[in-house]
Amino acid sequence: MPNRTRFPGRDVTSHPRLRQLAKLKTPQKVQDFLDSLPINFEKRGETCSSPLASLERGTVHCLEGALVACLALWMNGQPPLVMDLKTTDDDVDHVVTLFKFRRHWGALSKTNHGVLRFREPIFRDLRELAASYFHEYSLPDGRKTLRAYSAPFDLRRYHGDWIMTPEPLWILEREIDQSRHFKLVNRSHIARLRRASKIEVRAGKLVEWRG
Predict the structure, then answer these.
(1) What's this model's pTM, rounded to 2 decimal places?
(2) CA–CA distance from 64 to each of 32, 60, 147, 169 (Å)?
(3) Among 51, 141, 190, 207, which residue has the least CB neighbours within 10 Å?
(4) What are the domain boundaries of the chain?
(5) Average pLDDT over residues 98-118
(6) Which long-range contacts (CB under 8 A, 24 or more apart) does 113-118 make?
(7) For residues 143 and 195, is the Cβ–Cβ distance under 8 A?
(8) Average pLDDT of the chain?
(9) For every residue of the chain, which 3-state class applies, written as one string?
(10) What angle do CA 165, 166, 167 make, to 5 degrees?
(11) For residues 93 and 164, what is the distance between their CA atoms, to the nearest angstrom?
């Protein structure tokens, strides 16, 4: 991982849409800002927008929110890292933004559901952090679907413009999806999984924004 964490671009820090992110001095404030943004329901087609394009539109989904959070953290001296949570084929992956307080990991998350949200920096490693999402990740029939988590994907290593480009970031999405992942459960675990209970399934249907 590169040692440099300081954000480099004056054209970014001076942009009126992006300047507001520099005021979010803590991960908690970044999460509060993410929570204030309406969810992107992609009514006009699927999107994968840069932070600037997302803020100009005024809505974000999980990956777009993760990129906004990464930019805010980077502008305040922390590295822009994301972690992909990979599921079975009949469910949808989730992407969170990673941050550290001293030696412990936490996560920022944009979701429309009452689960899969912010994680306090209390986790000793990324497996612990990923496992904290396991019981929340289930389908309406109760099947638990989380299977793997990625190594930290450092956006400083991405060669394209992920901050201000008006073009969709499908290449970046693919690179994150194809990055190194680690199994969270093995076949023996999967064979013995208990389905989520009815009340857990009901709790998972709670949403923050209505489409």
Answers:
(1) 0.95
(2) 15, 5, 22, 10
(3) 141
(4) 10-204
(5) 97
(6) 113/204, 113/205, 113/206, 113/207, 113/208, 114/203, 114/204, 114/206, 114/207, 114/208, 115/203, 115/204, 118/31
(7) yes
(8) 95
(9) CCCCCCCCCHHHHCCHHHHHHHHCCCHHHHHHHHHHCCECCCCCCCCCCCHHHHHHHCCECHHHHHHHHHHHHHHCCCCCEEEEEEECCCCCCEEEEEEEECCEEEEECCCCECCCCCEEEEECCHHHHHHCCCCCCECCCCCECEEEEECCEEHHHCCCCCCCCCCCCHHHHHHHHCCCEEECCCHHHHHCCCCCCHHHHHHHCCECCCC
(10) 90
(11) 24
Q: What are 45's two structure tokens?
A: 């087609």
* Of 106, 177, 184, 92, residue with least CA distance to 138: 92
What's the sign of the alpha-carbon dihedral 48, 53, 57, 63? positive
Q: Which residue has the tokens 């009949």?
A: 90
- What is the bridge-based pairing of β-strands 104-108 and 119-123? antiparallel
What is the C-alpha end-to-end distance of the chain, expressed in Å? 39
Instruction: Give the amino acid at 95.
Output: V
User: What six digits make up the tokens of 210?
Assistant: 């209505």
Rounded Cα distance between 60 and 53, Å, is 10
pLDDT tens-place string over residues 152-202:
999 999 999 999 999 999 999 999 999 999 999 999 999 999 999 999 999
